[in-house]
Amino acid sequence: MNFLEKLDFLMNKYDLNKRTLSLKSNIPYTTIDGWYKKGYEGLKLTTLRKLNDFFNTTLDYWILDEITDPNYGKTSGFKVDYSEMEHVKKYRSLDPYGQETVSYILNREVKRVSELTELKEKLPNVLIEIPENHDPVRYISYHQRLASAGNGQVVFEDMPVDRIEIPDIPKYKRVSYAIGVNGQSMEPLYSDGDILLIEPTCQVEIGEIGIFIVDGEAFVKKLGDGELISLNKGYPNIAWTEYSNCMGRVVDKLHHD
């Protein structure tokens, strides 16, 4: 049911017409009549609240077409305001990756607030300061231990993917995923367990460090002239062939906490 169908339903239920609804709800007649003649796309929140109060419904009843019960949310005390519904609409417009990212952040914040509330209850007389300013962050995919700094790491497309938080700074503007390091061939620059931040690209310049696929195995190496170079001299370089591919450029690294 859309907005007008719900309005018609309640007007019929309470034996109202446009004029009586206008008089009883304090909504101008021209406004109500305009919904039927011109549409209701520009419906104001203040007007919606008047309808909500008059018919004793909840705002989510008017906003969500799939909710057809005027009593929805009232018996349990659950209510959704207009701004919250806008968040729901945005969430539904996201792809699965975006929805998963939002869920990750939401669950993290719910846990944080819950722990803070519990701490306040245990220590009611202790002032707990909450930082007001936080450095901006964003979340990217993290493929654990997929890049070898040793003798090669087989790439599995179905390997689990986590989410990690990185600073939202210009340096990381083009970073879209992270890969874990397995091995010591790129020491001392990159060590086993480091998390590399990757800018997707199919080509890097000679001398740059990237993520490469050679014979179905992933490597983090420096690109040389016809070969992939290991910084640790105890490991051999790898020949570059026509079947080798570049997955991205290494922008920076994060360390395990």
Features:
10 strands; Umud Fragment, subunit A; 2 domains; 32% helix; ten-stranded mixed beta sheet; 434 Repressor (Amino-terminal Domain); alpha+beta; 257 residues
How many structurally independent domains?
Answer: 2
Structural class assignment: alpha+beta
Helical content stands at 25-40%
Mean pLDDT equals 80
Broad shape: elongated
**Radius of gyration computed on alpha carbons:** 29 Å
Largest sheet: 10 strands, mixed
Give unreliable regions as ranges: none
Q: Give the N-to-C terminal Cα separation.
A: 51 Å
CATH fold field value of the largest domain: Umud Fragment, subunit A
Number of strands: 10
- Assembly type of the chains comes to single chain
Report strand %.
15-25%
Find the CATH superfamily of the largest domain. Answer: Umud Fragment, subunit A
Q: What's the architecture of the largest domain in CATH terms?
A: Ribbon
